[in-house]
């Protein structure tokens, strides 16, 4: 992903057809040790193509994926409070206790260094 992002940065910077050397240089300046085979793969895959068209085609493919995040319909109906129900004294349900989990130290790959 970092190779594609670096390629996109070069295109957005005005270079419509970045070379392997330019992509490698940008990655090194960003503190990434690039793999030549991966750089070659990205440059050759995008050679002669408009980045905007590649993104447009990729967006079409994303619409067919189910990535979650949508609200699902529950089979249980939502309880509505009515004025009559509010006046009766119902026993209060005890709130579930929150279980605290220990924090994990996650390696972000130098993202915030």
What spatial form do the alpha-carbon principal axes imply?
Answer: elongated
Largest sheet at a glance? none
* Class by alpha and beta content: mainly alpha
Predict the CATH topology of the domain at 2-62.
Arc Repressor Mutant, subunit A
- Calculate the terminal CA-CA distance, rounded to whole Å: 19 Å
**Helical stretch tally:** 5
The total count of strands amounts to 0
Highest-level CATH class of the domain at 2-62: Mainly Alpha
Low-confidence stretches: none
Question: CATH architecture of the domain at 2-62, please?
Answer: Orthogonal Bundle
Please trace the helix and strand order, writing H or E for each element: HHHHH
Helical coverage, percent range = 40-55%
| Relative strand content | under 5%
What is the mean pLDDT?
Answer: 77
| Gyration radius over CA | 26 Å
């Amino acid at each position: 992903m970092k190779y594609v992002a670096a390629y996109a940065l070069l295109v957005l910077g005005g270079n419509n057809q970045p070379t392997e050397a330019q992509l490698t240089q940008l990655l090194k300046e960003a503190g990434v040790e690039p793999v030549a085979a991966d750089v070659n793969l990205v440059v050759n895959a995008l050679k002669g193509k408009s980045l905007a068209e590649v993104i447009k085609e990729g967006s079409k493919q994303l619409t067919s994926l189910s990535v979650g995040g949508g609200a699902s319909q529950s089979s249980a109906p939502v309880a509505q409070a009515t004025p009559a129900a509010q006046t009766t004294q119902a026993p209060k349900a005890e709130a579930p206790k929150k279980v605290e989990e220990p924090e994990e130290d996650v390696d972000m790959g130098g993202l915030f260094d």
